[in-house]
Amino acid sequence: EIVLTQSPGTLSLSPGERATLSCRASQSVTSSYLAWYQQKPGQAPRLLIYGASSRATGIPDRFSGSGSGTDFTLTISRLEPEDFAVYYCLYGSLPRTFGQGTKVEIK
Amino acid sequence: EVQLVESGGGLVQPGGSLRLSCAASGFTFSSYAMSWVRQAPGEGLQWVSGINSGGDRPFYADSVKGRFSISRDNPKNTLNLQMDSLRAEDTAVYYCAKSSSYGDRGYFDLWGRGTLVTVSS
Fold first, then answer.
1. What is the DSSP string of A52-90?
2. Among A84, A89, A100, B99, whose CB has the most other CB atoms within 10 angstroms?
């Protein structure tokens, strides 16, 4: 079973700054099944990135994904106020596995 | 409108049963695998169960295997989760999620708003 480890647990940044979130897999995974989600309090997760680097429909281009093998990164180039949330990575092969999440909070 | 709407959550005693449903609309339900994902209070996301587009291949997380049963009714565009022998640790918001593909691989590209299940005496 694949284990996804996200780091850091919490990222304290100011609006306008760059956010770099990491998702590390316990073994090499297929990039096609690596996705990133954003979740705000009281809301369902929202798909941001699929296939490790493709932006979902309607997602601003300040969000980008990269990586392969065991190391994947979600980058938010310039944080907007609405970007402060919790972010999860997902590996979409059985059993589907989520990382534990990274909280991006306002500094 | 493309959406998923869950129902059936509530308060149940340990050892009890509950049946969740998810009504899908706005897309060809029978073409996609579906899953249930849960989130315990203050915790992260956990995949619970999935089923392929045809409804003949269910999949379960180890934590619910033998207690939960997933099914779907393609003509009625409905996904179900029968939860038996419920435990306190099953307390969570349960989300219905659409897969990007028809089988056992893929990401989730559409989510419902969730339904809360509370297991407590």
1. TTEEPTT--TTEEEEEEEEEEEEEESS--GGG-SEEEEE
2. A89
